Amino acid sequence: MTQGTSGVAGRRLPGPDELRNNGVVKNVGEARETPTGAPQEELATGERSTRNRVARSILDHGPSTVAELADRLGLTQAAVRRHLDALAGDGVVEAREQRVYGARTRGRPAKVFALTDCGRDAFDQSYDKLAADALRWIADREGGNEAIAAFARARIAAQASAYRAAVETAAPEQRTEALAKALSADGYAATARSAPHPQKGEQLCQHHCPVAHVAEQFPQLCEAETEFFAELLGTHVQRLATIAHGDGVCTTFIPKISHNASASTAGRNPA
């Protein structure tokens, strides 16, 4: 599914950063030290586990000092600093001055460590459920299915210019490949390949879909994307498989078209 942001009938719906599957907490950072004699793989796993505990403690308790983290986790302050340095290097935490409420004492405020936006995204924030709940709320209203379809098309239109530029600057026979590269730049891991015999055309394969769990409930998202691909490439296309329906890859068949037909459709706006 392509990304973009829009609303339907004045309602604020989740944007592209909210329509994704984050899953459970990720392993943040990698082991940077290996004491002599310790099995490297085992130690790396332990390092990541402790690093995750440090990040989780900050998530649960808010911005924290080194001393607070050490006390909570039963670690030495030196160990906490080492993990914080690694987390900061990975963009998961950042240091800032501690907020002081009331009268300020002498001396510099204590340094605390807080999660960055990237750090918060390493934890499950239920964005899929939020997006699905919002769309379900709209679908349950009068005209809801039409509103969902309108939202899906508006979402595609908001992102259309980047894909259109990539396709229209490519030679007609290279447009599917150009679209695949543009999709990959947005995180869809897309490829283009020749369709198997006896089909005459190409297959556009998207190996990742950040909104698959939502699209499983609302196929209008997939339908709007398919419509956009057809309009952009100037030919009828056929969706053969989708991740949302349990397939391993989103696969779209694109038949071979004449160069004249392709050129005549360039510059149109998506529906």
From TrEMBL:
Annotated HTH arsR-type domain residues: 49-94
Region Disordered: start-end pairs: 1-50
Coiled-coil positions: none
Record InterPro entries: ArsR-like_HTH, Carb_Metab_HTH_regulators, HTH_ArsR_DNA-bd_dom, WH-like_DNA-bd_sf, WH_DNA-bd_sf
Domain of life: Bacteria
GO molecular function terms listed in the Swiss-Prot or TrEMBL record: DNA-binding transcription factor activity
Pfam families: HTH_5
Name of this protein: Iron-sulfur cluster biosynthesis transcriptional regulator SufR
